[in-house]
Amino acid sequence: MGKRIKKLKKIRIHREGVDQLVGGLAFIAIVGYILWHFVAIPWIFWAFIVVFGILYGIAVNFYQCPIRYLNVEDTDGIVVAPADGKIVVIEEVNENTYFHDRRIQVSIFMSLTNVHANWFPVDGKVKFVKHFNGNYHKAWLPKASMENEHTDTMITTEDGTDILCRQIAGAVARRIVTYAKEGEECYIDEHLGFIKLGSRVDVFLPLGTEICVKMNQKTTGDQTIIAKLKK
Hints:
- α1 (18-39) packs antiparallel against α2.
- This protein has helices spanning 18-39, 42-62, 144-147; strands at residues 78-80, 85-95, 101-110, 117-119, 124-132, 150-156, 162-169, 176-178, 185-186, 191-195, 199-206, 210-211, 218-219, 225-228.
- It is an alpha+beta fold and 231 residues long.
- The chain is elongated, with a radius of gyration of 20 Å.
- The chain has an eight-stranded antiparallel sheet with strand order 9-5-6-7-11-3-2-13. Strands 1-14-12 form a three-stranded antiparallel sheet, with no helix packed on it.
- Mean pLDDT is 84; it is low at 1-11.
């Protein structure tokens, strides 16, 4: 299961952002036209174009859909970063929702300037996908993992190891999209989902896993190897 089997179609802009980007461009064009032809005050027109042009550029970056392939022949035991961002948690925790034992939690915080596509962290089979409504605390806070709105995807690797990947909504993010389906095989290089605006992804790993990242380290989704499972 660790070998390269499936590939994604190449997409430049994530499908979750097409409507917003088209609508935003139309808004800028219409308001710009009105300001230029009816208000006729040049500095107001150019101020509008500069400010909303910058905001639109941030939105385009946010909704990018990078097509990436991990440059590793065999991905068995490899855990990749499920998101672009920064490592904000590496610690042993009591995971009492599913495992009821100690796990190593690795958390990646995504800021507004990060690409918000999410990737599967391991090869395996989707055991279940569960969505939970909740609060919208700032995503980097420890309590966000359980109290915020989140979606849990449990993946079972070929050797039977269960890996939990949790997509968490933040203070601004209000929509979590998950493409994973129960019973389907999943692979590194495939998109797990998408979270709109600032948010976070947690990965829960078995004790004994070799952690390959450090606190505050920047990660690139599907490229940064964050851990190696114990064989």
